[in-house]
Amino acid sequence: MSIDWTEYSTGNFYDELIADDCTPREPATRLVNYLASLSTAEINKRKEMAESTIQEMGVSFTVYTDEGNIDRAWPFDIIPRTISASHWEKTARGLKQRLKALNMFINDLYHDQEIIRDGVIPAEIVLKSKNFRPECVGVTPPYGVWANICGTDLVRDLDGQFYVLEDNLRVPSGVSYMIENREITKRVLPELFSNDSILPVNNYPAHLFDMLASLSPRDISQPEIVVLTPGIFNSAYFEHAFLAQQMGAELVEGSDLVVEDDDCVYMKTISGLERVDVIYRRIDDEFLDPETFREDSMLGVPGLMRAWKAGNVALANAPGAGVADDKVVYAYVPDIIRYYLKEEPLLPNVETFLCSDPEQREYVLQNLDKLVVKPANESGGYGMLVGPHSTKKEQEQFAELISKHPRNYIAQPTLSLSTAPTLCGSIPEPRHLDLRPFILQGKNLFVTTGGLTRVAMKKGSLVVNSSQGGGSKDTWIVEEKR
In the 8-state DSSP scheme, what is residue 455? Predict the structure, then answer.
């Protein structure tokens, strides 16, 4: 037996690989036909090969539970998701536009706040955000860029159009899994990489290194770049170690660094102190510097903010960048783009209701069974209410939370998230997915060719986060035939 695509039902959703008439969409034609040529036994063999490769490569992530931290093998589906290169080119332009405007917005907030004075966004929305850092007022990072690395979550609705679901501007994670997904797929489906139609993703670490190097306060040929990690118990530690190794940078913890009397940062080495130019930090703001933020932090470096403000070290992402990583601010991004760039947004937002607005809040409270409610500053799929899948009791709890803290919640329609074939046993079934491309901004702008596709492994589920039971698959940007 082999896969019979005529039995694959796309349901009432936009499927990324298979059209409504059960024929493959153009970017997926070669892949779909190839999979149909494999027997069930061969498909199972490829699936087992992927699982053993994941074990061999040590690709894992950590889930925090009441019983403790559990290290799990990366959940992976062997059927890639395909997107045409022409469609992706337009999407990448929209992503660059968005990050450029967001960085201008953040820089404005920590200086003249012209966007507030001009009435584009209310002052309380920004200044009451838990990620607005008064300690950063007056600082200008290199190139005026605060969020050097951004992971923007995209979804496709019934029309096949990409929509921005949220921007991750604090400490975005997942890019290592994008790269490892490709390595696994090359081992599992090597035949499909025999031509150059699938665009590469393994150039990301080189682009990341170049971007970080461009931030160096010293004009030297080889600036010292380090990756600052909270340590081995962090859920993204695999990624911290992976990116440091790929860039040839040092992986350090806070105790490995020291700020001296000259307000410069130094790394402790066996041959003495060595000056650090750029820190790619994977630690949240409040843990960065116990002198400035949380006094009880054991993860950061005392005096780090002094060194940063003095211009003696670059931090990526800069402290305070998270003020734009707020789901309430997200609702204003189209206006932010128009204000700073004098352009129309190339990528649309998902319709968003602000619970801080009395009229919109009333609508949300009356329609909790139909909407997705999200806290303004949570991530990882935590603290959400997915209305159509919720109970009356859960809806009542959220109604109380929204009424008590309206600024902290937004709501969005339940999207008809696109699907893609995902192996369930030996049979492909549609599962919902999203996409997180990564955008870099320093001296230049760069967007990954594709990104991390996360897939809901449970039938009907819209939750794709790995911490909530989701999985992943390779993302192919496919060059069309000339």
Answer: E
